[in-house]
Description:
Distance between the termini: 105 Å
Radius of gyration: 35 Å
Number of strands: 0
Shape: elongated
Amino acid sequence: xxxxxxxxxxxxxxxxxxxxxxxxxxxxxxxxxxxxxxxxxxxxxxxxxxxxxxxxxxxxxxxxxxxxxxxxxxxxxxxxxxxxxxxxxxxxxxxxxxxxxxxxxxxxxxxxxxxxxxxxxxxxxxxxxxxxxxxxxxxxxxxxxxxxxxxxxxxxxxxxxxxxxxxxxxxxxxxxxxxxxxxxxxxxxxxxxxxxxxxxxxxxxxxxxxxxxxxxxxxxxxxxxxxxxxxxxxxxxxxxxxxxxxxxxxxxxxxxxxxxxxxxxxxxxxxxxxxxxxxxxxxxxxxxxxxxxxxxxxxxxxxxxxxxxxxxxxxxxxxxxxxxxxxxxxxxxxxxxxxxxxxxxxxxxxxxxxxxxxxxxxxxxxxxxxxxxxxxxxxxxxxxxxxxxxxxxxxxxxxxxxxxxxxxxxxxxxxxxxxxxxxxxxxxxxxxxxxxxxxxxxxxxxxxxxxxxxxxxxxxxxx
Length: 463
């Protein structure tokens, strides 16, 4: 049979329960005077809470003292390990930012190191960031161990950095994907966008467009500009414009360039030259080569147009490079024109190779070089450039830069005449009258083989 408690026993239980309830009351609800009394008595948790209150109203001097006291408590104190770790991390942050005391990076690292040893992931990431400073945005090998510590402690930013680093390493794909997935699970926006791209293309995971779209949308909702631009590119009407505007406002240069062009042309929006130039200039200022070329076309003076053409060409925009070379030619500056066409040729641009071949063949802006001229014509011709095919035929027929070959010349003329270019057709007919039937058959067979290689994109292969 269950025994009932006496009134005295019940009273004792109530008293004990009341005392425990009072002791366990959240410190944040205590009056500040009571909290200060506890902190003065060495209560680590009270020190941490009071420091936060003081910092919230800008009293960083007292806050820093209390935060260091809380962080310095032993494991036997009333403060949890995570509280002591966060107190140390906060002290490091304040030293780093010069709050409460003059900025002191050595002390900042000292407190971050203490916090890191207690398991604070953000402090470990701060140390990794300090190591990385001066090396750009891509992680360097010397800092990887620190990033790995932060990542293992659960810092999503560190996990993303490791994913990007391992992606560049031999045999690092599996590890890169693992870290990327961990960061995405924590809803790190850039990781979600990168993982979405993998699901979209089937890179390292099974292709799944529904998962890709869901991840893109989640990343976009969290403010990731790349994901917002993806949604814009896959939307229509007002939704398309909304996502482009969000991505542009978030700093995505491709979105800024798109908005600039849209407003300038009135494509999908009311035409507004001022707004268009504003967005285009933002992309220009971030070094977007395509935007720099477009911006050059709206400049009121030749000087400004040339300035942005040069910037764009230096950034790798092919149309700008061609425009710059053409500019020099119009000015009669053959030396700089030759340099500009040579730079385009070195990048594999078919038009650049053709024009550079002309400069070499004619000795414009420098010495004649028939051998190199034919090489440039051949490379351009194998990219489908009809004028380069015609020039390659001329040089083959005349033996300039290569042994004379009427068979090869006929083959080149055959390709150049495909679109009925008059010079090529005339040259083909004139040469045909000089060839034997078996030579014509050989040339036609050669032309078919070259045509097939051009169609397959084998333009740099030796003939």
